[in-house]
Write a structure and sequence with these properties.
Layout: H1 8-14, H2 17-28, E1 33-36, H3 37-44, E2 53-56, H4 60-66, E3 71-72, E4 78-83, E5 86-92, E6 94-99, E7 105-110, H5 114-119, E8 129-132, H6 139-147, H7 152-155, E9 163-165, H8 170-176, E10 178-179, H9 185-191, H10 194-206, E11 209-210, H11 212-221, H12 230-241, H13 246-256, H14 258-262, H15 264-267, H16 282-292, H17 298-306, H18 311-314, H19 323-337, H20 342-354, H21 365-375, H22 377-393, H23 400-414, H24 428-435, H25 441-456, H26 463-477
Parallel strand pairs: 2-5, 10-11
Antiparallel strand pairs: 1-2, 1-8, 3-4, 4-5, 6-7, 8-9
Helix pairs in contact: 9-11, 10-12, 10-13, 13-16, 16-17, 16-22, 17-20, 17-22, 19-20, 20-22, 21-23
This protein binds adenosine-5'-triphosphate and magnesium ion.
């Protein structure tokens, strides 16, 4: 027996007024209009949707008539409409054809029925719609186009009261917390291999299980994920890492065989032993470290995922010499392959390279200042978070020594002493005009040397002192 349908009044209160307003305008114009996809799924789950997906039988040109000021988004029939200060996307019903290379469709065909549109969607819980159908699907549109005025004038409003359309049992799967492919899972994953990664990502963020045949199909066809573009994988990975407990999904990627295809460098962590948590391998350590990073820190989570990526390749006699610099190089290559933004990649590489930073209580303040200068003030928070997550991943609790370093770092920052070249009392231009230094790498070396001296003794940061020091450095080199 199907579960009792969620009644329209419940949905009415869960759908925001601007979205209802857009639907009402479609209906009044004699068109079908539905809330569909991930947004309806989230409403049925009582979650706040990330965005609202609307679908209609109106072709894009017709939508531009109904919603003056709307703009075409793409060739797939998506139009962006502004309502109550927000932009909403409305997509014409369509079916997808001619998949090649296990990627996106090469040809789409607009349609008149919501059922056809739902059939192209990936999972049953994403293939439910709520809304109303046009009085005469396909007819009003043309009548109005030739009359040059909205169809509402002739047809009144939609023929059916708003209702749920659920041809694939999506509601039952919502209630059972099951992610199930629409149609034959193997065929659907061969059409578009990204659906396998979406399955793992959605199961993780929604707290769903993979329906057994859907999971078996992923295990059988994981290799076709090799054809996916880096960008599409990265977009799903980013959402997966934002889950409450990302290790669930990362582990599912590993167990289904997807990880070995999309991130073989990380799959290589499986079975690498290290003397941390008894009986746990490097992969388990990585998963624990990722989970230990707070939800709102995506860059640090990514860094935690990649922090020990250099270990399998550097393993020698039970140790991993230089794994942090080997790892930094590998992390850069992985992120370039996934076409991640350079700003993110640079931060992550820096964190991976420095995650093993040493610290001893005997350090003097100059040592603390040199540490800040080497890491950079902007990266300190991230690095401390990563190190704490790394410790947690090794089964350790809070590290008093690390807390002490953090305190000492904050003290130095609060003292507003010089921690980088920009705050030196002289700059390159001063050295050129006052001492006749010629621009070039030598100039940079002098400034670095001055910074070293000021980190050791902040009282040296006076213009005459630094000019004198620079003069003697140049004389020594001379
Ligand atoms: P999220 O909550 O992250 O937005 P979502 O399921 O809404 O998840 P979107 O990328 O916003 O994901 O896609 C919107 C809808 O489009 C999906 O719910 C699904 O119906 C459909 N869809 C998205 N990607 C695919 C795909 N690769 N194959 C088939 N249908 C897809
Ligand atoms: Mg969505």
């Amino acid at each position: 027996m199907a579960p009792p349908p969620i009644t329209p009044p419940d949905l009415l209160s869960a759908i925001p007024p601007p979205v209802l307003c857009l639907l009402a305008r479609l209906w009044a114009a004699g068109q079908s209009g539905y809330v569909v996809g991930g947004s309806l799924r989230d409403v049925l789950l009582g979650r706040e949707p990330a965005d609202w997906d609307l679908a209609t039988d109106a072709r894009p040109d017709r939508m531009l008539e109904i919603f003056p000021g709307a703009v075409y988004e793409n060739r797939f029939g998506t139009v962006a409409v502004r309502e109550a200060g927000e932009v909403y996307e409305i997509t014409t019903f369509r079916s997808d054809h001619d998949y090649a290379d296990f990627r996106r469709p090469h040809r789409i065909e607009f349609g008149d029925s919501i059922e056809l549109d739902l059939a192209r969607r990936d999972f049953t819980v994403n293939a439910i719609a709520w809304g109303a159908q046009a009085a005469n699907p396909g007819l009003d549109r043309e009548a109005s186009a030739s009359a040059g005025k909205p169809a509402a004038a002739s047809s009144g409003s939609s023929a059916t009261p708003p209702h749920l359309v659920d041809p694939f049992g999506g509601q039952a799967d919502v209630n059972a917390r099951l992610l199930r492919a629409v149609g034959d899972p193997v065929a659907r994953f061969e059409e578009d291999a990204l659906r396998m990664i979406r399955a793992v990502r959605l199961a993780t963020t929604l707290g769903f299980a993979l329906e057994p045949a859907t999971r078996a199909a992923i295990e059988a066809r994981a290799e076709v994920a090799a054809h996916l573009s880096g960008e599409r994988i990265a977009a799903e990975l980013e959402k997966l890492l934002a889950a409450e407990v990302p290790s669930t999904g990362l582990d599912l990627l590993a167990r289904t065989g997807l990880l070995a295809v999309i991130l073989p460098e990380l799959a290589a962590e499986h079975g690498i032993r290290q003397n941390k948590v008894v009986g746990e391998d490097l992969w388990r350590h990585t998963l624990r470290a990722v989970d230990a990073v707070p939800v709102g820190r995506p860059v640090v989570r990514l860094a935690a995922l990649l922090h020990d990526i250099g270990k399998p390749a550097t393993l020698a006699d039970g140790h991993f010499p230089g794994h942090q610099s080997a790892g930094a190089t590998m992390a850069a290559a992985v992120m370039a392959r996934l076409r991640m933004p350079r700003s993110v990649a640079e931060r992550v590489v820096h964190l991976v390279r420095n995650h093993m930073f040493p610290y001893q209580a005997e350090w003097g303040d100059p040592g603390v200042r040199r540490f800040i200068a080497r890491i950079g003030e902007d990266a300190l928070d991230d690095l401390f978070l990563l190190r704490a997550a790394d410790n947690a991943g090794s089964g350790g609790g809070a590290d008093p020594l690390l807390d002490e370093l953090r305190r000492r770092v904050d003290e130095q920052i609060a003292a507003r002493v010089v921690l980088d070249r920009s705050r030196l009392a002289v700059n390159g231009q001063d050295l050129i005009s006052e001492l006749g230094v010629t621009p070039g790498p030598g100039l940079g070396h002098v400034l670095d040397e001055l910074l070293e001296r000021v980190l050791a003794d902040p009282s040296l940061n006076e213009r005459p002192t630094l000019l004198l020091l620079a003069q003697s450095m140049l004389a020594d080199e001379g």
